[in-house]
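Reopening this one. Same input as before:
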Amino acid sequence: MKLLHQRIEKDQSGSVRLIPEQPEDMWHIYNLIQKSDQLEASTVRGVKSETSTGSVSTDRVRLRLTIVIEDVFFDVQAGALRINGRNIAENKFVGIGQYHTLDLEMNQPFTLRKSEWDLISLQRIKDACDITRQADVAAVTMHEGLAVICLLTQYMTVVRQRIEVPVPRKRRGSTTNYESGIERFYDQIYRGIKQHIDFSIIKVVILGSPGFVRDQFFDYMMAQAVKADDKTILENKSKFLRVHTSSGHKGALEEVMRDPQIKTQLADTKSAQEAKAIDSFYQMLNKDPDRAFYGYDDVRKAADNGAIGTLMVTDELFRAADIPTRKKYIRLVEDSKATNADILVFSSLHVSGEQLNQLTGVAAILNFPLIIDSDVED
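Same output, byte for byte:
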């Protein structure tokens, strides 16, 4: 998703202008849009016109409408988003107050206006528009002369840089030109990793190649890091995972991700964090139930006591049509964040999100035991 414009006033009202660029962007937009928001977007409408002879024809006209949202329909499989509402802006084809349905399209800008932009919505925009916040696995596939630096998100692989450097062939009796070409090639990969990989977010960097190219590059990178006292690379040495691939092209990542051993080694990445957190919650519920709370009332009391270590909520709660319900969960997140709790917003599209929904959609692992007698009023 690309953010074109954002204007938020002091009272938290305002508008954002966005362009969806990937199918999963529609999921983010679905989570942003609420009933009574205003949406301005381009659409196509059938317009009837009558000729001088009395015959009536219908033409498809592209126009720009602004509607007050009443209903939102999201097709998960197709990634299609359809919004229904009443027109509120002057238009020669659609009268004010008339109903119209807008189908949001890929690569078509739209503007969303809210009377109040809350913390969850603003964070979702930030995450959706910053690819590095979505990706916690990076990969560099390579063979001599070609390398591709990628970021892996939950739904897609994004190429950040493609590196092509001519490497002369080895000649009998003289390897100077070859070694010089390889060094230029490795240096560009090293610079690309420094430029495109944020090690504060990335948990694993996969280095894949046929033969020994990945090992030779890794040795070169570490030697350069020691020489330049590059603490970023040296401190994150353990994050590099060297694997065999059939080529240096991006497509070689598919065979890597199917490897069961690789899946195990990627267990701490963001895609597995939710499952790990819910497992930890169930274990705590069995071992020390006074440190595992679920349900809004109990979790709210834990937040009031500053006891929450990890707060888990499903994004479904923030799509509540009932504004007071939505706001109380936003306050819960804000209050927990103020006491340095880890906040995990689970996607309701995933198994871990479905599990959390079975626990009312909100649960917490506490830093210390807290005994709450539900039958006794404070």
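So the earlier flakiness isn't reproducible anymore. For the record, The radius of gyration is 26 Å.
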